[in-house]
Amino acid sequence: MPLRDAARAACLSHAFLRSWRCFPNLTFNEEALWSKARMYSGDFGDAVDNIMRNHSGIGVKILELWPFCIVDHNLNSWLQVAVIPGIEKLTLRLCPLSMKKYKFPLSLLSDGVRSTIRCLDLGFCTFHPTTELGPLRSLTSLHLLSVRIRGDELHGLLSNSLALACKLQRFSCLRICACERLKLIESKAPNLSTLYFSGKAKLSLGEALQMKKLSMWRSDVICYTRTELPSIMPNLDTLQLCSYDEVVDTPMLPTRFLCLKHLTIYLISGSSPYDYFSLVSFLEASPSLETLSLDMTADQHCYLKNVKITGFSSAKGLVELTCYILNNAVSLECLTLDTNYGTTRRCSDSGFGRCGSFGKSLREARRALRAIRTYIEDKVPARVKLTVVGPCSRCHKLS
Question: Is the domain of 20 the same as that of 138?
Answer without folding.
Answer: yes
